[in-house]
Input
Amino acid sequence: MVQGELLATPLASRHVALGARMVEFAGWSMPVQYAGILEEHRAVRTRAGLFDLSHMGELFVEGTDAARGLGYALVGEPATLKIGRAHYSMICFPEGGILDDLIVYRLAEDRFMVVANASNSAAVSDALAERLRAFSVVLDDRSLATALVAIQGPLSLAVLAPLTDVAIADLRYYAIAEGHVAGVPALVARTGYTGEDGFEVFVDVASAGGVWDALMEAGRSVGVVPVGLGARDTLRLEAGMPLYGNELGADTTPYEAGLGRVVKLGKEGDFVGKAALEKAEADGPHKKLVGLVLRGRGIARHGYPVFAGDRRTGVVTSGTLSPTLGEPIAMAYVAPSDAGPGTIVEVGIRDQRVPAEVVVLPFYRRAT
Amino acid sequence: MAQDLRYTKEHEWVRVEGDLAIVGITDYAAEQLGDIVFVELPEVGRSLAQSGSVGVIESVKAVSDLFAPVSGEVVETNSELASSPELVNGDPFGKGWMLRIRIADRSQLDGLLDQAAYEELTREA
Output
């Protein structure tokens, strides 16, 4: 349902011209698919795909206290990041639940870019403004001024390299560099949400059309296609990557999500959520995120119950038919006692119970 | 979309052949669902009540019910859809058919939408 005005990315007219079906997502009008989810998914796994992710939030934090301030606001330790590197992080509530998952890029000694989910961008911006108040930093929410175009898939490097002066062949995974793409100033990061090699290109909204067109043109002869949010979801699910609102939320701690590694309890000073997260770590998780492969017919969807014998052990958070594996896969929270790989549980799919095996995530790992 | 078909508001189509109704989902429904990966159909011999949920259509993105457009007994289901559910996307009015029902009450056919009414419905959506 559409209520009020939706935000449009600078590439909206291009999506429509490409035959995209547009849907509401986090207050934005976004392409969910062009040629079809399966075709787009396979293109990213075998060639490359182009994504408009301009709905995501870009929050710049600058000043002499930038590293220290973000260390207080987030669960990670940005002070340890080298310039030009990034890490996966989270911002938690004081009670320990997850407010959002983030990528934190260190652009300079005193300058960071925090990339937040579109659905949480405003809440993250507000929380950072409040948490950074006592620090000597400037928070610049450039979410609406910044466009993000991602190219993901094995051909990404070959397609992007001729269009940029950034030495992207040497850019490491989770690294970022400033330069130009298609002649306009850009930040180029080797990050993504698909399980493939790829790059994320941050530019001013006014430059987004030119960058998109240049990548489409450069990729056309090798089969690069535009990819919508539908395939983005199946790609990240195969790669075992969590999605806020499905696997992550205010009622979940990083430990339960299997992401305790991003919480740096030993870092210097206090941080928001520290006491609650120390307790959560000491107590151990009440639930654990697992991968499931269904051993019967049907597809497990978000919200379906998971049973261990007669006992309800948890709930499915995401599920689909894996386009790459050809099997129904899902992520679910289950009781820690049922979380061991090889455990057989059952997913309640309508009036049936379909057996499923707990497996180690990710479902898909690219050959390197 | 063909002139001899009748439609439901839930986007099933019906083609009447003698005392049988052949049932599938429309191109509009298939397009909305996206890539269909799994179709669950009722057992042959099962007696269906009009408007009852009789099957499930799963796409990569979503799950949707299949409703019986008319009451009657299932005499055949499209067994090809078990291994090739994508036929529903590729040829929704042909190879993507789902059920053959022996019509129990022909008067129910009069309550279904004709093509003009169905097109009106999808235009509003």
